[in-house]
Design goal:
The chain is an alpha+beta fold. The chain has 2 domains: about 25-90, Phosphorylase Kinase, domain 1 (2-Layer Sandwich); about 95-280, Aminoglycoside 3'-phosphotransferase, Chain: A, domain 2, CATH 3.90.1200. The protein has helices spanning about 20-30, 55-70, 100, 110-125, 160-165, 180-185, 230-235, 245-250, 255-270, 290-305; strands at about 30-35, 40-45, 50, 75-85, 85-90, 95-100, 135-140, 145, 155, 195, 205, 215, 225. InterPro entries: AGP_Transferase, Aminoglycoside_PTrfase, Kinase-like_dom_sf.
Length: about 300
């Protein structure tokens, strides 16, 4: 006879954090609001305190790292709770208006001050030292979250070359007609790893009533990327109506125009949705027939998803 010891054969329940009574009380009387720029919902507890549910860990981990090592103005993480509905994060969130809504009415002096402050903030981010060299990933060197690459997490990549190979969907740089891709993605091309906001554009720059920057927001995609990533992402995400802001920014932060051409060529070839299709980042160089089939798949996706 086989003897079984123990009478409780149920699966252990997940452990969730208990919400303090005071926080639950404030949440009960909180006001639900929606960010007009992103459509994201949050609960305002009063003053500068807000609660976000279903919060991405890439966001609050980046904010804690930036707060610890720089003077870049951003939301302050007050507490993080693991709840059945997801991560619940309490922030000290500064109230203001997105830069693009007030930029046209600003004086030249105010605009120059905004640009100078942003240049200083970017410089502080770029001076942060990565915990490990050459690992491309989020703030903790885990998998990154970037809508540039579809809906899923990507990486981490243990070299910049592996990250670039992922961008190319495993193809050799010489399978692309653009000479900029050949140069930027060359194996011997040296790039440093820099901490990057990844979506530094006017809608993610919040200014107060005195036209001073009170917070940079939109840190979900922040992490450790090749040194050109801040510049190429900024140029792509800035609307044409903010061309003078972009021109001014390009004069105060490091420029990577060759890398921008390469990135735009890759964006034109690969829709963001194609990165949701599984493929090994270490895949061997595909045959011409495989390339043709993949291009057909991309064209079909682009037809179905006009948002690119």
């Amino acid at each position: 006879m086989v003897l079984c010891f123990g009478s409780d054969d149920t699966e252990p329940q997940d452990e969730y954090d208990h919400l303090p009574f005071g926080l639950r009380w404030r949440m009960h009387f909180g006001k639900k609001e929606t960010d007009p720029e992103t459509g994201e919902s949050f609960l305002r507890l009063g003053g500068n305190k807000i609660i976000k549910t279903h919060c991405f860990n890439t966001e609050y981990q980046a904010l804690m790292l930036v707060d610890r090592h720089t003077s870049v103005p951003c939301w302050k993480v007050q507490s993080v709770f693991n709840r059945p509905e997801g991560k619940l994060v309490e922030y000290e969130a500064f109230v203001g208006k997105p830069l693009h809504t007030v930029w046209p009415a600003m004086s030249a002096h105010q605009k120059n001050k905004i640009i100078a402050d942003l240049a200083r903030f970017v410089d502080q981010l770029r001076k942060m030292q990565p915990p490990k060299q050459c690992v491309v990933g989020d703030a903790t060197l885990g998998a990154a979250l970037d809508p540039r690459f579809g809906h899923g997490r990507i990486g981490p990549f243990f070299s910049i070359q592996a990250f670039q190979e992922f961008e190319r969907r495993g193809h050799s740089p010489h399978h692309f007609p653009e000479k900029e891709i050949h140069v930027v993605h060359a194996p011997q091309k040296p790039y440093q790893l820099k901490f990057t906001h990844s979506n530094l554009c006017p809608r993610n720059i919040i200014v107060d009533d005195a036209s001073r920057i009170c917070a940079l927001v939109g840190w979900e995609s922040a992490g450790w990327y090749p040194e050109y990533w801040e510049y190429t992402q900024m140029c792509h995400n800035t609307p044409k109506t903010m061309g003078d802001w972009l021109d001014a920014m390009c004069n105060v932060i490091p420029r990577y125009d060759q890398e921008l051409i390469a990135e735009e060529a890759l964006r034109a070839r690969y829709a963001a949705s194609i990165y949701d299709v599984p493929r090994s980042v270490r895949a061997p160089t595909p045959s011409p027939s495989e390339m043709h089939n993949e291009q057909q798949e991309i064209d079909d996706l682009n037809t179905d998803n006009t948002s690119g």
